[in-house]
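Contributing new records

If you add data, match the layout below exactly. Sequence lines come first and carry their own label; structure lines follow with theirs. Keep one chain per record. Anything else will be rejected by the validation script.
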Amino acid sequence: MDTREFWRGSGNKKVDSEQLSVNRITPLCPPLSRGDIKRGAFSVVKLAFILVSFLLFTLYYSLFTVCYAEDPPVNINSDSLEYFSETKTYMAKGSVVIVKDDAVIKSDEVTYHEETSDIVAEGNFRYDDRDISIIARKGEMNLESKTGKFYDAEIRYSATGEIHKGAEIIQKKDVYYISGKEIEKKGDNHYYSPEAVFTTCDSPLPAWCFKGKKVDVVLGETLKASNVTFRIRDIPVLYTPYLWSPINTGRQTGFLTPVVSHSSSRGLGLNIPFFWAISENRDATFFLDTYTRRGIGLGIEYRFVKPTGVKSNWWAYHIKDRELDKDFWEIRALHENRYPENLGGFLNINYVNEKEYYREFSPHHKIRTQRFLESTGEINAPFKNSRFYLLSQYYVDLQNETGQVPQRLPEIGYVLNYTGTGALMLGASLNISNLWRKDGISARRLDVYPRLFYSAGKDLVVSHTVALRGTAYSFDRNEGITDDTVKRLAFEYNIAGRIRLYRKYSSFTHIIEPSIGYRFVSSSESNLPVFDSSEYFKRTSRIELSLLNRIIGKEGEVFISRITQTIDTYNGNRPFLPLKIEFAISRPVSLQMDATYDLYAGKLETVSSNLNFQVLTAGISIGQRYNRKEDIMQYTAAAAVSLSKSLQMAGRLWYDAKKGDVRDMAVSLTYLKQCWGIKFEFTKKPGDVSLMVMYELTGLMSTISKK
């Protein structure tokens, strides 16, 4: 029997079928008998007429009528199938499989209503499409709108997103689960349940979950529920009368993960951030920080970007410190509007009203130990090989109480990049600066600095630079200066020659580059107050000898070293400046080091080094800094090791050998599983020991850095 043959009538007939295609199907007519054909036989002429008419009609229809695409078919596979013509209903039983578009439905028994596209599935119901899987005891669903209700159900949603690692884009998948006695699918990714469990853990007994009433979930957007308990291994540990949380498949407004900490100087701390996704290119984060010993801090960070290259980040923070009885304010801003061919600029603001703010509240070692806080603003107008600019620059000394730091308020200037004029290259700079100090000498300065550059040779390259420099000062509060105005005229000449010698071996190339240079500056005035490097442009006569060694392997540079000796002919009977030694290797370990050696004292003046290497799963870094004149001897160390697939440990140390004290130390332990993670970080700095706890619920919230 043909499985697609159906019978008219008021009753129903049973059809055994392995596959059935249904698309608004109406029953077919039964085939004609031989007697019918004889009684209604046509003549040859009539048959020819009918055939020609049919061909003409087909040609007209194909050329002059509009074709309408049919709805995609509904394909049904089952062990048995019944059709009820009066209600236009199909009853499929036994291993039922229904395919509609990209959706596949499986169940033990399915009733399909042809006119409404509704189905009722009983027993082992399963629905799958590109993103969603639904498993239930029973399912009621409309195949067109893909809405319905499911009983004793679990819904699995897979969201694919992008993680950017440099230029590389890594695909990641977060999986979300909703389970409950009754779940209604109200639209695309929109689900509602009178009582349900939500988690991103894929084990039978989830490591964590939220269980609540009136659960309303829009996957990829938000989770809302009332009377919610947060459970670990189905044990309730937290309760909230209402929960609202973003589901992090994209940028969503909502509370971010709180950070819990304890500090010997600040007490117990709770940091609660709230993220506001204002628009596609704008967002803001609000911060509420509470410290039991110090007070409450409030902060806001606002960010936006534009396709034209404009980007901006603004930050403001305030805390009333009860222990020190001080109001601390911090304001930061970075606004960039850089255009290669049009008027642009940037603004970088860094302000604190009290210098000890970073020492008391910043968790970052580099910020706590910085010497100056710089704020800069610039507007520039670029041209083909030059630019005009207007600059303001303000420094705050965070370590010393001094008003001697010079500020540029403002500076206007013009820079001409080196431009070819035949065999010569011409460059120049001109600027007018208002150099202001709170205490001490202030001045207005005009500086004009044109230069000519010429280079010739191939194996032996010789380059020359000739320059004139004119600088004029007008002083205020001129302590120690007899004249209110001073002019300085200078002539500069540089000559340098270098030659490259190399030899190729089977596995590497060895390159040697000896060079010699001479710099001469004649200046009409050398006794000037120092505002910046411009005042160090004074009477000079120096010879520089250098030897560069390089070894380049098949995979790149393996070794490089440079020895430089400078001879100052104006330095009396001690013309030799400290010998400078630099070298670096990249394999099998990474090592960089530079040092200066005083030939007359027979002692090292400075030494800086950094060593990086890998031992099994551990990455280790060791650094050192020594300065004899400034009496500095410091060591730094950092390590990160994977103890297992889920457990990582990291630490850093800064040790001051002169003071015999650990100035900064941090140790962290991070545990990351499929659907959750937790990080403990212990830090020690002068006057404070703290412990911070950060955690992650995958797909919902995280404070754990993935760097």
